[in-house]
Design brief:
The structure holds 2 protein chains of 2 kinds. By secondary structure, chain A is of the alpha/beta class. Helices cover 34% and strands 17% of the residues of chain A. Chain B has one domain. The chains are: A alpha/beta, B alpha/beta.
Chain lengths: 349, 77
């Protein structure tokens, strides 16, 4: 029996083309394996092999989703694959969104099994977990060795039409699909057992986890901008030149609070970005491109806004955990309120 | 961070390039930006035109802050 055909999708980084300075490259296709495809190919053994690898820059994909998706689909079609694998993307946000988008498109348009892999906090996971199988990986490429066998195991099951187990068994992110099965004990007994455990303070596993919709209702609009004090916040990593507090370029453990009372604009002489997840050239050249201090000063002078708050808050949103970001913001939001800030403009790269 | 600022009771507008991520995260007032490495700029323009472009996005975000919304709203052009 001939080997089944697999097409693999990776970004510019894993293809060894380059880092953020190459994140805007357009899609290209190469015959055979590239980068992590080698480990995947080995794990696929005699069952299947990667016949082609599609590579696309993360920024190009996310800034041109529709065009990029079409270009990539056309490339994939040429190779008549039986299976499509993307990533793993770990905690790389744009890469995760690309992997999710393209696996869903392939599944919908070509009707073949697809698998990708990412960290649970990758925004691509929340966006696509209901549509495609996303194997749960660690948050960095250091966990590649655990990610590959799990992805290949699930991919081969799908390829062979074998039954897929529960998310725990097959290590994918729950798709919210309910499946009937015969339990050994009837529901009333299981419910009472669970209740007794709960009363005793013991651990128990619910049979019906409530979905976690962490939504916040929008606050009422600002009534009169010309009297409002507005603060700037960014996840784009803008810091005073030299990064005095050493905010990390990825997985930031802190945020910075900096005084801009004496700045009419930000320039390369006084500010820069600490962010390691995008090409810093443009932000370093003119930090207003990420934190628009110049325009807000103009609007302040013209009386369009009451006042630009003298401090801005900043961190690096690059693989930074949701828990850290939450903690940063709930802390500085209290200060913003104490300082009488009435509205916030938050910029992200 | 957007959500925590909102939770604290301060209206907040999120200017970002990848709108689907902002929607997933749960921002309520969203203004699309230009590009990931320069959300509020465009190095291909001269300084004056670039600032005009930036001002347009900031004005759009101020408009978002003064608009009552029910649930997530993307303020397109």
């Amino acid at each position: 029996m001939s080997k089944k055909r697999v097409v693999h999708y990776i970004n510019q980084f894993f293809a060894g083309i380059g880092g953020e300075e190459k994140a805007d490259i357009k899609p290209e296709v190469r015959e055979g394996v590239v980068g992590p495809g080698m480990a995947i190919n080995t794990a696929l053994k005699e069952e299947a092999e990667i016949v082609a690898t599609v590579i696309c820059g993360d920024s190009y994909f996310n800034e041109n989703v529709e065009v990029a998706q079409k270009e990539i689909l056309d490339m994939i079609k040429q190779y008549k694959p039986d299976l499509f694998i993307a990533g793993p993307a770990f905690n790389a946000g744009r890469y995760g969104v690309a992997c999710g988008t393209i696996t869903k498109a392939v599944q919908d348009e070509l009707g073949i099994p697809v698998v990708t892999g990412m960290y649970i906090e990758n925004p691509g996971a929340d966006m696509f977990k209901k549509s495609v199988y996303i194997v749960e990986t660690g948050n960095s490429a250091a966990t590649m060795r655990a990610a590959v066998p799990a992805m290949v195991n699930l991919a081969l099951k799908l390829l062979k039409g074998e039954e897929v187990g529960s998310p725990e068994e097959d290590k994918y992110i729950s798709r919210g699909i309910r499946k009937n099965y015969f339990a050994e004990e009837r529901g009333s007994k299981r419910a009472v057992d669970m209740l007794i455990k709960k009363l005793k303070g013991e651990d128990f596993v619910t049979e019906y986890p409530m979905p976690d919709f962490d939504r916040v209702e929008p606050n009422p609009a600002v009534k009169d901008l010309s009297k409002a004090k507005i603060a700037l916040v960014t996840s784009g990593g803008i810091v005073p030149k030299g990064n005095p507090d050493r905010v990390e370029s990825s997985s930031a453990s802190k945020y910075g609070k900096y005084d801009i009372a004496n700045f009419q604009e930000l320039t390369e002489a006084d500010h820069e970005t600490a962010h390691g997840g995008y090409d810093p050239v443009y932000a370093n050249e003119d930090p207003d491109r990420v934190l628009p201090v110049d325009v807000l000063r103009d609007l302040e002078k013209e009386g369009a806004i009451g006042e630009l708050h003298r401090y801005f808050y900043t961190t690096v949103g690059n693989g930074t955990s949701v828990a850290s970001s939450k903690a940063f913001a709930s802390e500085f939001a209290k200060e913003l309120i104490a300082d009488g800030v009435e509205a916030v403009i938050l910029t992200s790269t | 961070m957007v959500k925590e600022v909102e939770r604290a009771g301060i209206p907040v507008v999120h200017i970002c390039t990848v709108v689907p991520i902002s929607l997933t995260v749960g921002a309520n007032r969203i203004v699309p930006a230009i590009a990931i490495p320069y959300p509020l700029g465009n190095p291909a323009l001269d300084k004056k035109d670039e600032k005009t472009l930036r001002r347009k996005i900031v004005e759009k975000s101020l408009q978002a802050l003064t608009t009552e919304v029910e649930g997530q709203t993307v303020f397109e052009d």
